[in-house]
Amino acid sequence: MKLSVAGCVAALALVASVAPAAALDPSVGDRVTTLTRGTKWKPVRQTAIDFPTFHPQGMVKIGDDLFVSSVEITKPTTRYDTPRDGLDRDAGEGQGHLFQIGPDGQLKNDLRLGEGSIYHPGGIDYDGRYLWVPVAEYRPNSRSIIYRVDPKTMQAEEMFRFADHVGGLVHDTDAKTLHGVSWGSRRFYAWPLDENERPANPDADPSKLRVMNPSQYIDYQDCKYAGSSRMLCAGLNAYKTAPDAAPFRLGGMELVDLKESRPVWQVPVELWAPSGLPMTQNPFFVEATEKGLRAYFMPDDDRSTLFVFETEAP
Which terminus, N or C, of the chain has the lesser number of Cβ atoms within 10 Å? Predict the structure, then answer.
């Protein structure tokens, strides 16, 4: 089949829209270790997202486009009076999405992911070729499907299934290992990959594979590979300042050593959206600049805004 000139231009434009093909700059991890509680984040811009985003979960930036995972809840989960088969609530109902968003906030693609009760996408990573997206039931101690997605074609491939809620993924391209975090990031998992990037241990017993996260002050919402077998995660937690007071929500970032399964740098991010939510409430992405770091946040559900901040970091 011959392509017309217009068709060739359109095809080239699609490829260009997801270029360059590079994962997170390894220097980002090093620069994160210069951040402190006193770091000043300068607002750069904000862009209204021009469609319903539901509940955003993970985000990466490829070229000028954002790829954002999100869960659309059509029937919320309901907690049981007492746990049933190790589960504390029913499955609810919903639909998983992976959005491709242009720099103007317009929707370019919407890939549906998951099946049945497995509809909750989590934090995502990009390894320079594929997006890695976990989709799980919307409850702890449940089940997940792990996908990789070609951002050029928005085609998804199921890689394996796992008997726990995987809430975020990173691909350690140095050690050729896939890493996951559980509900609330309380557990770490690792799956060595073969030459076809398929896990060598997909049927491993989760109870024997997991390593407990020694950090407790935030729950990770989204994670990215940051070079040198480290992942950068952002998240938050809510704290009561008094028994009857509204909770205080604090966000932060953690750089985690994937070989030792422990954080090596932790820093609060004292930034809040006009809604009052921490900037790290939902997905994030960080990239290196000439003088430091640029961070992208999308904290609000449904009618989201992309907030961009910069800071100097040697």
Answer: N
